[in-house]
Amino acid sequence: MCEDQEFDTRYQDMIVCPWCGSKWYDDDSYYASAGTTEETCEECGREFSVEANIEVTYTTSRKLCENDEHEYEYDRFHFSTQDYQRGQWINLPEEKWKKVNIFKCKKCHHEDFRREEIKDEEWEQARNDANRRMASHRL
User: Which of 98, 102, 113, 123 is most buried, by the most CB atoms less than 10 A from its CB?
Assistant: First the structure.
């Protein structure tokens, strides 16, 4: 190889001799040494410096509650007026409607859905919600 030729030696996946361009993989000894080390190329016999560049990356994950030790608090509710059957949503008759209270864990945000009968004073709101939902599906 020509001495005037320059080789890409910065931030490579392997060690590249800056004199002749020969490449070899690290045996992890460079990671253990701090700073810059001196090396002699096995191909051309010239000396050069090696500096291991370490890239640090991070991976995070959500901490979930173990053994279902959730700390639930009430979050919201909705009225369940439909059911998913055989690949499609069907409207339920009013006598099968339920109020679904949704509780969320304060620690991991897991949601718990608790169904209950609709109270007499909630029927008007349930019918209004169902009509609003059906109207939005027609658009």
Answer: 98
Of 4, 36, 33, residue with least CA distance to 18: 4
Q: Is 121 helix (H, G, I), strand (E, B) or coil?
A: helix
CA-wise closest residue to 94 among 117, 72, 121: 117
CA 93 to chain centre: 40
Return the pLDDT at 32. 61
Paired tokens of 57 = 């990356």
Cα–Cα separations (whole angstroms), residue 22 to 7, 77, 84, 131: 9, 67, 65, 74
Domain residue ranges of the chain, discontinuous segments joined by +: 1-53, 69-138
Q: What is the pTM of this model?
A: 0.49
Q: What tokens were used for 78?
A: 């909705």
Q: How far, in Å, CA of 55 to CA of 139, rounded? A: 52
Q: What is the mean pLDDT of each run of 10 residues along the chain (139 residues)?
A: 78 91 77 76 92 84 86 93 90 92 93 92 90 75
